Amino acid sequence: MNLTDIDASTWAELETAAANPQSGFRYVNLCSVDAEGRAQARMVVLRSADVPTRSLEFHTDTRSPKWLELSANPEVTVLGFCPQARLQLRLQGRVERHGPGSEIADAAWNGLPGRTRMTYAGGPPGDERAFETIDVPVPPDPVDEAEGKARFGVLRFRPRTLDWFELRQPDNRRAIFAYDETGALASCQWVNP
Questions:
Q1: Kind of pairing, strands 55-61 and 87-98?
Q2: How far apart are CA 161 and CA 191, in angstroms?
């Protein structure tokens, strides 16, 4: 495969991953920086991939620390690894936040199943919570789906670079791809792994 084929295949794989919970790239790491300059990494679900604009979409609770971190510094790295393909993707770029009531957040919310909507209706991320145990059942707090919508945010990620790394013993392969502001492929090259 040549480099443009690898780029096209990578984005097709990301598009498939957004629709397939069994895909190796369905869950990726979103890495940001907190107010003290410490790296923060967390797993997020890839909700959509737009191939023509080379953008990815993730959902989040707007009360989460990552929402605030991304307000202060929208520069992030997204890292994924698919063990079946033995392929690592490291994308670096910028996140746009779309909060409750925005057209983008409303459209994404309307496409979510009810069980997913309810995950945004509970207490703030990181707050203490009691879970049901075998000995002492704790009834769940009643939740209202409208409360979840008021806390639902969309993160749209536009990478400037893709570091593609394939583990192929004895000959690992690595390539770097750069994208312009429209998402078009601007340059690509093989590099030492």
A1: unpaired
A2: 14
Closest CA to 126 of 69, 166, 71, 172: 69
Please list, in sequence order, all residues whose beta carbon lies within 8 angstroms of the beta carbon of residue 144, skipping any fewer than 6 positions away.
121
Q: Which residue has the tokens 């340059």?
A: 187
Averaged over successive runs of 10 residues, the pLDDT of the chain (193 residues) comes to: 95 97 96 95 97 97 95 98 95 98 97 91 75 58 79 98 94 97 97 95
Q: How far apart are CA 61 and CA 46, in angstroms?
A: 15
The DSSP bridge pattern shows strands 75-82 and 55-61 to be unpaired
CA distance 41 to 30: 6
Whole-model pTM: value is 0.90
